[in-house]
Amino acid sequence: MRVDKPRIEPLEAEQWSPAAQEIMQPFVSQGRVFNIFKTISNHPDLAKRWMVFANHILGKSTLSVRDRELVILRIGYLCQAGYEWGQHVVIARQAGMTDDEIRSCKTGPDTPGLNELDTLLLQATDELHADAHVSDETWAGLLKHYNTQQMMDLVFTIGQYNLVSMALNSFGVQLDEGLPGWDV
Fold first, then answer.
1. Tens-digit pLDDT profile for residues 63-85
2. How far apart are CA 59 and CA 53, in angstroms?
3. For the chain, how many helices (H) and strands (E)?
4. Quick one: pLDDT at residue 163?
5. DSSP string covering 101-151, please?
6. Does the pLDDT at position 1 exceed 90?
7. CA-based nearest residue to 101, from 64, 134, 55
8. Contacts of 35 (CB under 8 A, 6+ apart)
């Protein structure tokens, strides 16, 4: 974690405004009231609009869950977003990723033994993080595996989780109980 305590306090249910209660209802009903959502409940208007986009990326994207999690873990690692890393290690494991595959998100596209697509996905993530641009070579390689919508979802997924990592790090969102740290 970049900071050891929240800069923006996560609000508990009794502190939620009526607008925040509305935003938080789906999470409460699913039993998933994570610190990220309790923190963003401080700004219900922002939360409402951000969640539309976040829901597309996390649930309606044309990327496979595994490919999505691979790039989310990589951008989370590149941004040193401990909260992002911990949440998505859990999701990646639920999607069937092994710990070796998860660890490849730390070592990146030069990890020995990666298949071509994983190498390209990690390379695209590195390039977007470093230069806000996917190189022609990486783009051409990805086009062998992905259609136009998948290419768009890939760039938006990496961008979304870069943004989320910035927010988590800056707001000081702390790990929820039971989330793994960097030691995967």
1. 999 999 999 999 999 999 999 99
2. 10
3. 9, 0
4. 98
5. HHHHHHHGGG-TT--HHHHHHHHHHHHHHHHSS--HHHHHHHTTT--HHHH
6. no
7. 64
8. 10, 83, 173, 174, 175, 176
Residue owning tokens 């209660």 = 21
Is residue 154 within 8 A of residue 124, CB to CB? The reply is yes
At the top level of CATH, the class of 63-170 is mainly alpha
The per-residue pLDDT for range 34-52, each reduced to its tens digit, is 999 999 999 999 999 999 9
Domain boundaries, the chain: 63-170
User: pLDDT at residue 168 above 90?
Assistant: yes
C-alpha dihedral, 131 to 8 to 38 to 105, nearest 10°: 30
The CA distances from residue 176 to 33, 47, 93, 137, 155, in Å, are 10, 19, 17, 39, 28
What is the C-alpha to C-alpha distance for residues 47 and 15, in angstroms, rounded to an integer?
A: 16
Write out the two tokens for 25: 């209802």
Instruction: Report d(CA 105, CA 121) in Å as an integer.
Output: 10
* Cα–Cα distances in angstroms (integers) from residue 69 to residues 14, 23, 81, 126, in the given order: 33, 25, 14, 15
- Cα atoms in the 13 Å half-sphere on the side-chain side of 110: 2
Residues 177/7, Cβ–Cβ less than 8 Å: no
